[in-house]
Design a protein that fits this description.
Strand order of the largest sheet of chain B: 6-5-9-7-8
Number of domains of chain A: 2
Distance between the termini of chain B: 48 Å
Oligomer: heterodimer
Strand content of chain A: 5-15%
Radius of gyration of chain B: 22 Å
CATH architecture of the largest domain in chain A: 3-Layer(aba) Sandwich
Helix content of chain B: 40-55%
Number of strands of chain B: 9
Number of helices of chain B: 17
Shape of chain A: elongated
Structural class of chain B: alpha/beta
CATH topology of the largest domain in chain A: Glutaredoxin
Order of helices and strands of chain A: HHHHEHHEEEH
Radius of gyration of chain A: 18 Å
Largest sheet of chain A: 4 strands, mixed
Number of strands of chain A: 4
Order of helices and strands of chain B: HHHHEHHEHEHEHHEEHEEHEHHHHH
CATH class of the largest domain in chain A: Alpha Beta
Largest interface: A-B, 49 and 58 residues
Structural class of chain A: alpha+beta
Strand content of chain B: 5-15%
Number of helices of chain A: 7
Distance between the termini of chain A: 23 Å
Chain lengths: 158, 436
């Protein structure tokens, strides 16, 4: 269940805006933050808050890259697979390295629920290729060593 | 040295503050327009038209012309939307512009809003640019406190509220009409004009959508005049500077502001540090993923909307992706088409069905299973993309059309030898499963 304080806050914002629908994406992302992913429960609750049909939200949830309709790890690693990153020397072995390091394939989540690996289109950091984004932090000019360091740091933070 | 305009305040590692922006002439145009009403909204539109400021988001449509399509008696509130959903592969100029000098963009937005008498401005920004979104929110508040934005700007009695909207990520949202649907909390399928957004856009009210870089030009044009802006270009038909994002097989990838009409060879050799050791220039995408693949014969082309159009190419966003003689262009096309097929919103049949079809044929050719007749099928299928609902599918077809026309031999070599001639030492593969 969403915290009462959050529900009250959203309702206040909804009253202030004349058009609740303009808040849909913001609210979906916030609710997702709370649940860790956009579960059926999240979907129903958001629909209730915004007085929209769950199907209208499903239409959006399945559309956007950063709304997850399946469980994801605490850290979602979005690996750029667009042309400039993909043609940097050693890209393929770098992707293999990431998969090995985490013990998962692209599209999967580690057993401890910490990391997911997902492909994503061009992040807009082609000058720093290859790049990836973890939650909302972008890392560029990646190497296997750099990636390992990032993962170790995140593991310590949990 | 070429003069720098939009990136004149760029500093390593930090933004230019409002004071620094003001020291370089910032907010003077805004003060004149709001306090003295000189230029008036009509004057602003005229100056921008005369300056030949073309939309830098890819289409190259004159901003003054678009503004003129907002009817005088159109209802209020009106909206100015700043398109910072920079998702065109290879493009990162808007990110650099926001990080370099956010107040330049804020002033540009408020002035463009003034030109069409819009009271509300929305900055639509991609989720990957969270840092830029936070910078903008913070600096908008600073501008508001200084009276340059928000209610009653500089005591003029006129308002321009600025709002930052974060997208949840989808390429099609950068298309103007799809963006409007996204802002309305709908699935971001494009709308087919008419009515055009400038008459009935966001919430059915007049809405002008402009790219970050275009808006950044506005204060400078108003400060220095249309003639000055035109004179910045190296071509007769061009105007202003262009912020090029260069990536790929060059020594020094990055953003470079150069006069419109600069030669591609100069951009690569003198600014992007030349080709990496052991690499020769083979081809480039001149303006992002949805422009035609350009061969070596165009190496000295002047990068300018007009000049390139005459030669059958598009400057697009000015995102130059450089490929060397070791890069397999069929594989480049496979990568780009994978991107487009995945990002297609699926609304219309040609795009939803056609792009995966083209991708499948390209994949077969790359895998050494191509047949001679595939080339003609691809050519035909790319031609059909013009029947799609919006400009997405024709854009998606453009690099492939460039491939089969300009690099016919390379494609044929794949088919005749039943293998990719670049296979050894070339990264490739398809690691990407869809996660939807």
């Amino acid at each position: 269940m969403l915290p009462e304080t959050y529900i009250n806050e959203v309702e206040k914002r909804l009253r202030r805006t004349g058009r609740p629908r303009e808040m849909v994406i913001d609210v979906m992302l916030e609710v997702q933050q709370f649940y860790g992913w956009f579960s059926d429960e999240a979907l129903e609750q958001t629909a209730g808050l915004l007085q929209m049909h769950p199907l209208e939200l499903e239409e959006l949830a399945t559309f956007y890259n950063y709304i997850y309709r399946q469980p994801v790890g605490k850290y979602v690693i979005h690996v750029c697979d667009s042309v400039i990153c993909q043609m940097t020397a050693g890209y393929e072995s770098f992707v293999e390295h990431m998969q090995e390091k985490l013990g998962i394939q692209m599209g999967q989540t580690t057993h401890d629920g910490l990391f997911s690996l997902l492909p994503v289109c061009c992040l807009g950091y082609c000058d720093l290729a290859p790049a990836l984004m973890i939650n909302q932090t972008v890392y560029g000019e990646l190497t296997a060593e750099k990636f390992d360091q990032i993962i170790e740091d995140l593991r310590r933070e949990k | 040295m070429h003069p720098r305009v939009l990136l004149q305040n760029r500093k390593p590692g930090r933004i230019a503050t409002m004071d620094e922006y003001r020291q370089s002439g910032g907010y003077q145009a805004l003060e004149k327009a709001f306090v003295k009403n000189d230029p008036s909204p009509g004057d602003i539109r005229e100056i921008l038209l005369e300056a030949r400021l073309l939309g830098r988001g890819g289409a190259g449509f004159p901003i003054g012309k678009k503004m003129a399509t907002v009817p005088e008696d159109a209802p209020h509130p009106r909206y100015l939307v700043c398109n910072a959903d920079e998702m065109e592969p290879g493009t990162f100029k808007d990110r650099v512009l926001i990080h370099a000098d956010p107040h330049q963009l804020i002033e540009g937005i408020v002035l463009a809003a003034r030109a069409i008498e819009a009271e509300i401005a929305v900055i639509f920004i991609r989720r990957e640019y969270e840092n830029a979104a936070r910078i903008l929110e913070r600096e908008i508040q600073i501008a508001r406190d200084a009276g340059f934005a928000g209610k009653n700007i500089l005591g003029s009695g006129r308002d321009c509220e600025l709002v930052v909207h974060r997208s949840a990520g989808r390429y099609i949202c950068g298309e103007g009409t799809a963006l409007i649907n996204a802002l309305e909390g709908k699935r971001a399928n494009p709308r087919r004009p008419p009515p055009y957004p400038t008459t009935r856009g966001l919430w059915q009210l007049p809405t002008e959508v402009q790219n970050v870089e275009t808006l950044c030009c506005v204060p400078h044009v108003l400060n220095n005049g249309a003639q000055w802006f035109q004179s910045l270009a190296l071509t007769d038909s061009g105007a202003g500077t262009k912020v090029f994002s260069v990536s790929g097989k060059v020594n020094n990838p990055g953003c470079f502001e150069l006069p419109m009409g600069v030669r591609l060879s100069e951009l690569i050799e003198e600014h992007a540090g030349g080709m990496i050791p052991g690499s020769r220039f083979k081809a480039c995408m001149p303006g992002g993923a949805s422009t035609r693949l350009m061969p070596e014969s165009m190496y000295h082309v002047r990068l300018d909307y007009g000049d390139m159009k005459e030669k059958g190419y598009r400057l697009g966003t000015g995102a130059v992706m450089v490929f060397d003689h070791k890069t397999c262009l069929v594989q480049v096309a496979v990568n780009l088409m994978t991107f487009f097929a995945r990002e297609s919103c699926g609304w219309c049949t040609p795009c939803r069905e056609g792009l995966p079809y083209i991708l499948d044929l390209l994949n077969r050719i790359e895998a050494g299973q191509g047949r001679a007749e595939y080339i003609e099928i691809i050519r035909k299928m790319c031609g059909h993309m013009k029947y799609s609902f919006c400009a997405f599918a024709p854009g998606a077809a453009a690099p492939v059309q460039g491939l089969i026309e300009n690099f016919h031999e390379e494609v044929t070599a794949h088919i005749e030898n039943q293998r990719c001639p670049f296979q050894d030492g070339q990264a490739g593969g398809d690691n990407a499963g869809s996660h939807h």
